Amino acid sequence: MLTVKEAQSIINSYSFFLGTEEVDIDHAFNRILAEDIYTDRDYPPFNRSAMDGFAIKSADINDKQINEFEVIEDLFAGDIAAKEMQSGQCIRIMTGAPVPSSANAVIRVEDTVNQPGTMHTKLNTIKPWQNISLKGEDINKSEMLVRKNQVINPAILGALAVAGKYKIKVHKLPAVAIVSTGNEIISIKNPVKPYQIRDSNSHTLKGFFKQYDIGNIETLLLADKKEELKSGIGKLLDKDILILSGGVSKGDADFIPEVLAFLGVKEIFHRVQIKPGNPFWFGITSAGKAVFALPGNPFSVQVAFKVFIEPYLRKCFALEPMASLYFPLLGLKNKKTKFDEYFPCRLISENNSTGLLPIDFNGSGDITASIHSDGIGLHLSDEETINEQSSIPFLLWN
Amino acid sequence: MLTVKEAQSIINSYSFFLGTEEVDIDHAFNRILAEDIYTDRDYPPFNRSAMDGFAIKSADINDKQINEFEVIEDLFAGDIAAKEMQSGQCIRIMTGAPVPSSANAVIRVEDTVNQPGTMHTKLNTIKPWQNISLKGEDINKSEMLVRKNQVINPAILGALAVAGKYKIKVHKLPAVAIVSTGNEIISIKNPVKPYQIRDSNSHTLKGFFKQYDIGNIETLLLADKKEELKSGIGKLLDKDILILSGGVSKGDADFIPEVLAFLGVKEIFHRVQIKPGNPFWFGITSAGKAVFALPGNPFSVQVAFKVFIEPYLRKCFALEPMASLYFPLLGLKNKKTKFDEYFPCRLISENNSTGLLPIDFNGSGDITASIHSDGIGLHLSDEETINEQSSIPFLLWN
Fold first, then answer.
1. What is the ipTM of this complex?
2. pTM for this model (two decimals)
3. How far apart are CA B11 and CA B282, in angstroms?
């Protein structure tokens, strides 16, 4: 049976480039940038006053010991100095305004006394370029500002705007379909009979995909009947990502692998050393598209998304894998299996530190534990016991 | 001058209930739940087989030492047992199927040998209720399943589905407007002159609001001209949240407070002991709506959102404040001010621990540092030095 790492690596080897499209900056949030963004000018684009004050020549103070200046002009942000400043003269300047080329320092208004047309200062020395943000000190023209293959977050949106990019090349979104299978599964819009279970997995999975702005997802409920499965699933094999939940356990179960084989989906593997999340079936259509068949238990579906499907999706987008964060476990945990075990945890911050509190849960069918958790901790296969305060890897739900 | 905590507390005291609306479950992701959700049935809703195997009476094995059973029926998920099982009989059962009331244990298929109509087992004992998920063991009927005033994440979407809720009461979204002011500020769609700066702050802020599904935001660029400001801002005072950036520093700056006063917006405070993010002006319209006036520097705007505006927004939604996470600082940091200082950091996970790497930056006008960071670390006002590996509070950008 494959380890989690082996399974991830095999799945990711089937990732493919989704192509690109152009979107307006107002629709770029949370999309994946597909072009490197270069600056078209220095930033700051000019020597910018960092303070409200007076632009002067530093030598007037440092060498000529001048401390009374004639104010020849007022300069606001967005203005250009009209006059050339001579020794003994100064220009009143506001934060953000371009420092005139004849000046090389700004005295803060707090360090001056002002009368109409005149500025006195008590300063004996001032550093050249004091209180000036120098042209290009942040980034130069034609440098790379934003590297491609990142999620466009608020700061990156701002950087795109700085570069004047309002049409943005982003990765296309994959076409996704989600099929919940099982004779007992019904739509949440229908009345439920005592032996029926409402379909919750498709809603959970749609939420996970929405985190990547993938909203247009086809969903289908199918009974465990071979002909119905063949016809229903058969129509969805053109999707980039097809997810099935339910119907892969041993009993009823050979149905899904058998139906997928009939439809020309090649089985890549069927089991992984993971708990929960098994049986986890992965295959590839004749066109090279991914088919994930998950168990029907809600918590298993959530773990399978975070551990296998999300890394695959990120790989298609050329994103870095979601990094685990390490936190100390607020408790002790034993396990019996030799599998990687994921368990729900809540982040607790107190006394200047953050730790992971494991949430009690009844196993993979539990619907309440994950609601009360911030993500999943990982009990690694080769560790029998996690000791109190041991640092373990943690994946945030979002 | 107010401390950050004092300022936050004052701002939050002006929060108000936005009202509620009903959305379909397909539009509920990332919205804020506004009703407590109760279960309408036990979960599991019936004694559910946790394994593929055979439902039996445990006393047949434990007391009567029977190890050969007649198979009287096959039971799939979604089926109801048609027959009453007698001693010495068993029912073949699949994972997820309801255990018949005449049985009280399931033997795993792996522990049996089967021939048509007959099942043999090598087991000498079996615990009553072995391999059965008991009705209600996760949660009982009429218990609270999801507490209101939480962000609806994938697991909560699944729980809403379990409860059969497809119309969800959520908090209404606030009406938001963002005004960028400054003679030098131009739209990113216009050609830029050497002394002009493209408006990036409105794009950054719109990104932050999108994290809460708030997408319909009015934006406006206004020059530093009193009449233009009065007329432009005057039309936006009916918004729930109005954000201005630029024009609050001392020089050009009394414009914004003066214009807001003219428009009947009451100043609550003007400065906070924070770096960057000052001057930070907060006021309230005659109708009690919030007006935030921020400095124009990009990094200041980002910090002001995370530290003041997001907590206010969350309070309006009745959400818990965004919790800081604590991580060790991978470096040493000194500061000169007595203010709370926020600085960009990247999360680095290696050698089984996660730490914060401070990102070099040129101060509040820097557009590149935050792109390379995962969030902001906090250097608390009363600490002159943060020592290497000291644990500090950290806020993720998202």
1. 0.95
2. 0.95
3. 8
